[in-house]
């Protein structure tokens, strides 16, 4: 079991003139009644009262307390002067858009045990509104229809399909004709992905589309497309593992072609041979699928990453617009998933028009123009037997952070990360266990790799030192960028470098010639759409990851954004972030011309030396405790100061005293710490406690030494980071 000890270090966790005529969906519309701003989800607004000439006076109009220390990913909407915004757990607030005063709030009763299988914080990415109803999903996967005027529940539907509740919901529902479509997350927890469509008025389930086949021994597949998909899996597929393919973010209805586009997530476990040793493309993992909203049948699909082994979800946001392509105006779908490419599809038939990388990637040697298939570089990136450095890393070149397509410049403005990771598998990794993390690949981000190299076991270190990518790790570009990208070529027209590759946020662009983008240091910055020049920036004191929006009310143009650190990698708080320096309380910030400066949140108190832990109990099996901690607990608990979840190396005596009751009786379930009495025995809990006591002893000793020398206590590098 001692092999787990070193896992502590590893579980890191252009513009053609013709494009100016594009996108009727956006050009005439200055309202913002859906999270993406319009039916194309372009995150573009035709409003121009705030523009290059006056944006320097942009300041705070009002703010609203979102009452949580968790991440904020939602973009608000405004309908009839009422702003509707969702927050963590699926809470919804209705607010007077001009004054910021609350009209009503909806607080779902969430089964907090769901946190056992929530990878990426208790976030929520938005609502859908139609005919005086507000639709939202809670973290525990219940879909609600609320009355627009009062927030009262009109109907609710449990969207989970079986007994093993490994799913959760962070995404926004999407209205498609007379149904509302919702997906879920949980590909890392042994689930089978699907989307469900409910009747808008009654909440009755109308159809469900599974993204991967089921065990053929259970009977025929639910539809003919899945029968065909079955052939891409091979007969040795381990169906009991669910296979993943969750649709946790983008679901996009196209009224022009009456199709619902879904982005399908990664496979679980990560390596395709772990799911089916004989391999195969494994449809519909990592695919874009167009569904008929009437019945959930497949209209067309394109698999972006066949045989996904790198957590390359295709769930990232899409943009629907029209573009001049090869001399013809074409209705297109723009999509930049995790895998590093920006794809352009013809919405008339799903044909692939373009696929260009927008960051360094090494998993594919381009896309074959004849077959449309990527030329996968198995020799470079298949890590099942040999550790490999793979670009991009599992958090992706792009993630959920919405991009903006601006029809006036013809550019796609997006947060892009340049980062890879060392991936390797692990003989003897704990066996598959329902509702536990199923991915069995270990990851080290290239940004940390050189520092961590000496701590890696010799065979893995050797593989890194012989890797053809080592030179890039040493000297290549690593970071987070706001890029203005030509959607036809993938070329960057201008870019702004952020503080790190983890520093990324949603984007708004406007007809005022402006691009709005927040960052984790707490700044909301405004750039010139054409040049990328920073025209203005506002210090808010709260990390921003969500996309801003804009609206007009009583003749005034406002900019609104939610703020709060969290999401993927949420427990770990970057040292350069606002969340490290200030209290990470969620806020909705609304700006106007001539507004005031933003009040800074309370600064966090100085770090204190970890308290003296109790002695290690008699008869403990430290190796067992360590192994269990790394299998089950590192998803949320990072060994790092000022984490959002508790830093368990700093438990106070009163917490040590009830450690067993926290795990076995669930005394903190309400606060988001689930109970584990179905997994851990009393002895297991004692062993985990013993491991944490040893960690607390270590951190206390090192901090006492630092204190003695008069050095800051947070000098040590953060060690654990998980991200999906
Ligand atoms: Ca994933």
What does this 3D model show about the protein?
The chain is of the alpha+beta class and 724 residues long. It folds into two domains: 44-593, Quinoprotein alcohol dehydrogenase-like superfamily (Methanol Dehydrogenase, Chain A); 622-708, Cytochrome Bc1 Complex, Chain D, domain 2, CATH 1.10.760. It contains twelve helices and 40 strands. The strands form eleven sheets. The chain has a five-stranded mixed beta sheet, with no helix packed on it. It has a four-stranded antiparallel beta sheet with strand order 2-40-39-38, with no helix packed on it. The longest helix is centred in the C-terminal third of the chain and has 27 residues, at 682-708. Residues 1-28 and 717-724 have low confidence and may be disordered. The protein binds calcium ion. Calcium ion is lined by residues 187-188, 265-266, 311, 313, 724. The site of calcium ion has 7 residues, from loops.
CATH level-3 fold name of the largest domain: Methanol Dehydrogenase, Chain A
Examine the secondary-structure arrangement and name the CATH architecture of the largest domain. 8 Propeller
Shape by Cα distribution = globular
What number of domains?
2
The count of β-strands is 40
Span from first to last CA?
Answer: 25 Å
CATH class of the largest domain: Mainly Beta
* Structural class determined from secondary elements: alpha+beta
Q: In the CATH hierarchy, what is the superfamily of the largest domain?
A: Quinoprotein alcohol dehydrogenase-like superfamily
The quaternary organization reads as single chain
Across the major sheet, the strand order is 1-34-35-36-37
Poorly predicted spans: 1-28, 717-724
As a percent range, the share of helical residues equals 10-25%
Count the DSSP helices.
12
| Beta-strand residue percentage | 25-35%
Mean of pLDDT: 92
């Amino acid at each position: 079991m001692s092999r787990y000890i070193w896992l502590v270090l590893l579980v890191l966790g252009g513009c053609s003139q013709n494009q100016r005529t594009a996108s009727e969906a956006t050009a005439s519309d200055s309202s913002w009644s859906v999270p993406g701003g319009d039916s194309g989800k372009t995150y573009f607004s035709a409003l121009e009262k705030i523009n290059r000439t006056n944006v320097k006076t942009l300041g705070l109009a009002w703010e609203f307390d979102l009452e949580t220390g968790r991440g904020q990913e939602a973009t608000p909407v405004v309908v009839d002067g009422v702003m509707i915004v969702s927050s963590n757990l699926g809470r919804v607030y209705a607010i007077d858009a001009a004054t910021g005063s609350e009209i009503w709030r909806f607080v779902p009763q969430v089964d907090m045990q769901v946190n056992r299988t929530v990878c990426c914080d208790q976030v929520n990415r938005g609502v859908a509104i139609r005919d005086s109803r507000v639709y939202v999903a809670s973290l525990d996967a219940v879909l609600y229809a609320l009355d627009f005027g009062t927030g009262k529940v009109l109907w609710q539907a449990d969207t989970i399909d079986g007994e093993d509740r490994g799913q959760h919901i962070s995404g926004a529902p999407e209205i498609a004709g007379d149904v509302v479509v919702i997906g879920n997350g949980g590909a890392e927890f042994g689930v089978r992905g699907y989307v469900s469509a409910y009747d808008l008025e009654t909440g009755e389930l109308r159809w469900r589309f599974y993204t991967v086949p089921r065990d053929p021994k259970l009977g025929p597949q639910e539809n003919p497309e899945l029968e065909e998909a079955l052939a891409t899996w091979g007969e040795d597929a381990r169906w009991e593992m669910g296979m993943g393919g969750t649709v946790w973010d983008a679901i996009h209805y196209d009224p022009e072609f009456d199709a619902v586009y879904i982005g399908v997530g990664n496979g679980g476990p990560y390596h395709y041979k772990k799911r089916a040793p004989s391999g195969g493309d494994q449809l519909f993992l990592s695919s874009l699928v167009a569904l008929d909203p009437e019945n959930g049948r497949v209209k067309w699909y394109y698999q972006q990453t066949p045989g996904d082994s790198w957590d390359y979800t295709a769930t990232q946001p899409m943009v629907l617009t029209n573009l001049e392509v090869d001399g013809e105006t074409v209705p297109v779908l723009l999509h930049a998933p995790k895998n590093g490419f920006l794809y352009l599809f013809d919405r008339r038939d799903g044909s692939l028009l373009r696929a260009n990388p927008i960051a360094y990637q090494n998993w594919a040697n381009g896309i074959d123009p004849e077959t449309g298939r990527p030329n996968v570089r198995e020799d470079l990136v298949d890590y099942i037997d040999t550790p490999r450095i793979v670009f991009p890393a599992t958090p992706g070149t792009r993630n959920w952070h919405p991009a903006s397509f601006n029809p006036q410049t013809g550019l796609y403005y997006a947060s892009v990360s340049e980062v890879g990771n060392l991936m390797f598998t692990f003989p003897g990794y704990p066996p598959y266990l329902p509702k536990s993390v199923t991915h069995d690949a270990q990851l080290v981000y290239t940004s940390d790799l050189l520092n961590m190299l000496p701590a890696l076991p010799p065979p893995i270190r050797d593989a890194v030192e012989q890797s053809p990518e080592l030179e890039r790790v040493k000297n290549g570009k690593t970071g987070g960028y706001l890029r203005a990208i030509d959607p036809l070529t993938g070329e960057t027209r201008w870019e702004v470098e952020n503080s790190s590759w983890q520093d990324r946020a949603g984007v708004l662009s406007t007809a005022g010639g402006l691009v709005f983008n927040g960052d984790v240091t707490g700044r909301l910055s405004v750039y010139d759409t054409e040049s990328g020049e920073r025209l203005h920036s506002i210090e808010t004191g709260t990390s921003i990851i969500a996309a801003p929006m804009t609206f007009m009310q009583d003749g005034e143009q406002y900019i609104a954004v939610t703020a709060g650190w969290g999401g993927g990698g949420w427990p770990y708080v970057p040292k350069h972030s606002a969340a490290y320096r200030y209290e990470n309380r969620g806020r909705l910030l609304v700006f106007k011309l001539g507004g005031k400066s933003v009040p800074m949140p309370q600064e966090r108190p100085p770090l204190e030396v970890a308290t003296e832990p109790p002695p290690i109990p008699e008869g403990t099996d430290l190796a067992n405790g360590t192994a269990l901690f790394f299998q089950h607990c590192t998803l949320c608990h990072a060994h790092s100061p000022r984490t959002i979840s508790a830093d368990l190396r700093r438990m106070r005596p009163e917490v040590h005293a009830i450690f067993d009751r926290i795990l076995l009786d669930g005394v903190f379930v309400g606060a988001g710490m689930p109970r584990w009495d179905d997994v851990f025995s009393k002895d297991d809990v004692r062993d985990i406690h013993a491991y944490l006591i040893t960690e607390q002893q270590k951190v206390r000793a090192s901090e006492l030494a630092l204190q003695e020398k008069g050095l800051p206590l947070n000098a040590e590098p953060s060690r654990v980071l998980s991200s999906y």
